[in-house]
Amino acid sequence: EATRPSTKLNIKILYCSKVVMASTPDITARPTPCLQKGVELYPYQTKVIEWMKARGKANPIYNRGISGGMVCLKMGLGKTFAALEHSLRSQSVKKELCPTLIVASKTVLYEWKNQGIEKFYQNIKALYFHKDFLGDYINHITAAEILEYNIVITTYDQCLSASRKHDAHKLVCEYGQEGIHKDKVIAIHVRKKPPYKPAVKGPVNLYQIPWNRIFLDESPRIANPKTYTFKAVMALYGQHKWCLTGTVFRNCDNDIWSQLRFCGYNTITTARLWRRWYFKDQNLQQYMYVSNYTEAKVTMPEKIEHIHYVDMDPDQKLTYQALLVETQDLYERMLMKFISYASVLAMFTRLRQVCISPYLIVAKSKNGIIQEGIDKALIQTKVDKWIADSEGSAGIDSPKIKKIIEIIQSVPKGEKIVIFSMFVKCLELVEKAIQTDLSNVSYEFLDGRCTGQERVDILTNFKEDPDVTVLLVHYKVGGEGINLPEGNHVLCIEPWWSPAVHNQGIARCWRRGQKKPVHVYWVITRKTIEQPILKMCANKDQLADFYLYGEEYNPQPTGLTKYEMQKLLGIAATM
């Protein structure tokens, strides 16, 4: 049961354009944090903090509206520590009335607690603004109580829930008034000031408090400006706004725009008007602090990549080809505007699942168009009984799953492997294969169904128990923000559309503090869509280097546009 946070204040907060408080809180009630004994900043972290300090003094009027910026440090270089130290130093010097808000994923929230605040600081007052910590009291906490803390950490999902419940996103969304744009979001503005009304109780306080600064951890989470998550964080008010990430770029040029927009960028105010060359023309590099391992003078362990190619067996190939034909048919129907882009994209996902194990497409799709295409393909190939057997060659005995088992067996005694996939059902198949073929191997399984404390226990068990040698992880839960140097083998079951997803996953093990060489395994199914997806990822890596390091870039398709869909289908059909 959560303990009710202590409160010594009983004040009412009123808001106006300059955020005047009806009664000034006694911030001397806050403790003065200090570093734990023996904790020191690395020289490159000191440079980051000095840059952040200078950016904090800059007038946004003369900086395209930006008050803050983007801290782009490679994974493991200590973005968490730098952000905390900058915040606490500023609070100490300026005697700030409002705390710092940090937004992270649920899994990473625990990392901020265990590997950030408690590891580096003593005498710090941090509020973990989540039901896992506050219980039902999260619905009763007041702004007055929140203001007692140095740091407040919450999750993207918590912001999203509060925004939807209280319509906070409508404070920044501009809606069309007529024609085809009527009642549709046509622009999302930067939050200028909190609404003029007293603070209320509960999660809505995320949108009522004028935070001194806001940090978005792993900020590419808001890369797509069409998502509710982007709207929810844009509705947060902060005097200074920061993005923290090791992989600033995921899919397309708009990724950069979305994160700069959160920081206050106001020159190009809609994503559709953003162009790649604006980044250099407007000198936007000055709002990003970029550092890699070489610049930070950090010696990284050796990273060895292994690419294993597997061939489909006859029934799998038959299923894949039949599904490919159905996907091509859906693509043609999309061009004629009979079906949506999303339906074709969903069928692409089914193609990719067949590359792993055809059994993965057995589960019924909620999309009737997709299910119709799958059923048609299965009827034509007469493999409906074969594909339903999870223990046969459509399931745990598929070529890719068998290769994964071989790789697990090859891991030397005393070493551990982390296995990533974007498909929970795929991880469950690997789990079943381990139980069947490697009954002596102990493993852990981490996905979105695990509660906060369960996630902590699973990660702790993998790290500390020498008998647990395998960790099965869903990318969205364990692919970023956690430290797993205990594992020095990483296996990516399938290529994803964005190389940032792979890079983040690999960086859980290949990071500062790793003492062993790290082996990265790719298992690719030949003559399938997986091969051109890898090429698309290489193009995206080049585009990321263009933004981060100013390297030359020969424009190549990076997003899954209608044209790129056609190209992928054509490549896949002729291999």
From TrEMBL:
Transmembrane segments: none annotated. GO terms for cellular component: nucleus. Residues 400-561 form the Helicase C-terminal domain. It comes from marine sediment metagenome. Residues 60-266 form the Helicase ATP-binding domain. GO terms for biological process: DNA repair. PANTHER family: HELICASE-LIKE TRANSCRIPTION FACTOR (PTHR45626:SF17), TRANSCRIPTION TERMINATION FACTOR 2-RELATED (PTHR45626). The keyword Membrane does not apply. This is Helicase C-terminal domain-containing protein. Keywords: ATP-binding, Helicase, Hydrolase, Nucleotide-binding. PROSITE patterns: HELICASE_ATP_BIND_1 (PS51192), HELICASE_CTER (PS51194). SUPFAM superfamilies: P-loop containing nucleoside triphosphate hydrolases. One of its GO terms (molecular function) is hydrolase activity.
